[in-house]
Design goal:
This is Mannosylglycerate hydrolase MGH1-like glycoside hydrolase domain-containing protein. With 422 residues, the protein is mainly alpha-helical. Helix content is 46%, strand content 5%. The longest helix has 21 residues.
């Protein structure tokens, strides 16, 4: 297989004229952080298309600054995906002139993606005023997270649904989810099981909890008041990506003639708050706002803060990444959960499999902190998985067998980026 040609084939096949769907069968709409990762890879195919990917997503931004995690394709029937647009009922808040969307968010990797896309073709971006148009939208997005989502009062972003983490089914959410009474899934039809094996997906009980949280948030008018949310967790991955994106925002601000200093100050503030609040035992952990306790579990999200520049505990994170819990140097990929934990499952969604976007972020963090040899091990390892397993949604970290959706766009996009950059 010519890996580069096949990656391009997936990206071209999933393009819908203004955005790229993650996977035509299982995910037929536009997803927020998917589009950011897709843009990072697509810049090697077409910087203009990468710009349009991000512009399309931010065209559905809400007035309060939030960037919804799904923008629904009006050409796809409502019943083609669950929960679909009628379930979210976003237009009751946004009004009829805005695209139908979900009401929750995903991790803020978008400024980082925008800066990478700009640097791939500054001339086209400047001619189109790409950053000038996107910068105020990014500012509003970060402001929403910083202000509306500081539910714990410690200056960190809280997610209010496991889907907002992007790592939907991680064991990291089990303690907080246990408080949530699941909806009976007899009321709904799960569409994900039409396209993926049930052994690789969340259980019906957990899915029922996800639906309950959406119903509560929707029925509140998507209000970000602490009392609305049974689930409110300060996620290390979300906060790390916000910090890394603030560094990118400083570069964007310089380019558009805005002050960079506030973004660098926010980066420093987030870095300090994360270390003080979320770091313990060689790994970052979620903080459960409702219980007031750190949830000390071995999620790979706890390694993603390596993307934060000048992180004072980077060496400890690298030791954890290469130690028995993740064995990154040996496997060449990073499992999504602690290998030594009895809850580790190499095939079930976010409870063990390796994901390309997480590997890409950790490799970036390793390069940021001078660990170039381990970064190259991961680059080679993920490229080998892509060649052996194809562009699957995730992979068994031991056997490198592909799992989940086929023709998965961010896998193809980030494979292309790994090929093109060293």
């Amino acid at each position: 297989m010519n890996t580069r040609s096949e990656a391009l084939r997936v990206l071209l096949g999933n393009w819908r004229g203004y955005n790229t769907v993650p996977a035509p069968d299982l995910y037929p709409h536009q997803w927020s952080w998917d589009s950011a990762f897709i843009a990072i890879g697509t810049r090697h195919l077409s910087p203009l298309r990468a710009q349009r990917e991000l512009e399309s997503l931010f065209g559905a931004q809400w007035d309060d600054g939030r960037v919804p995690h799904i923008v629904f394709d009006p050409a796809t029937p409502d019943e083609g995906y669950f929960p679909g647009p009628s379930f979210w009922n976003s237009k009751s808040v946004t009004g009829p002139g805005v695209a139908a969307t979900s009401g929750i968010v995903q991790p803020p990797v978008h400024a980082l993606a925008a800066w990478e896309v700009f640097q791939s073709d500054p001339d086209t971006a400047q001619r189109r005023r790409f950053l000038q148009r996107l910068y105020p939208k990014l500012v509003a997005w970060h402001e929403y997270l910083r202000c509306r989502r500081d539910l714990g009062g410690a200056g960190l972003v809280s997610i209010v649904h496991p889907w907002e983490s992007g790592m939907d089914n991680s064991p990291a959410w089990d303690p907080a989810l246990a408080r949530v009474r699941p909806v009976s899934m007899r009321r709904y039809r799960r569409r994900d099981l039409d396209h993926a094996d049930a052994s690789q997906r969340p259980t019906d009980e957990d899915y029922g909890r996800y639906v309950r949280l959406v119903e509560t948030y929707r029925d509140s008018g998507y209000a970000d008041r602490p009392e609305v949310h049974e689930f409110a967790v300060e996620d290390p991955l979300t906060n790390a990506l916000l910090a890394a994106s603030e560094e990118a925002m400083a570069g964007i601000a310089d380019e558009v003639g805005a002050p960079a200093a506030p973004h660098l100050a926010e980066l420093a503030r987030l870095r300090e708050a994360m270390v003080a609040r979320l770091f313990s035992g060689g790994l970052f952990h979620p903080f459960d706002v409702r219980s007031g306790e750190l949830t000390e579990v071995g999620s790979v999200a706890g390694l993603v803060p390596l993307v934060v520049p000048d992180l004072p505990v980077a060496e400890e994170l690298i030791a954890t990444a290469t130690g028995p819990r993740f064995r990154a140097g040996e496997l060449g990929v990073v499992p999504s959960f602690d290998l030594t934990d009895e809850r580790f499952d190499p095939a079930r969604y976010w409870r063990g499999p390796a994901w390309f976007n997480i590997g890409w972020l950790i490799r970036r963090g390793l390069l940021t902190h001078g660990a170039s040899k381990l970064a190259e091990v991961l680059r080679s390892g993920y490229l080998e998985v892509a060649e052996r397993a194809g562009f699957r949604e995730y992979a068994d970290p031991h056997r490198a067998t592909g799992l989940g959706a086929h023709r998965f766009a961010w896998t193809a996009a980030l494979t292309l980026d790994l090929i093109e950059t060293r």
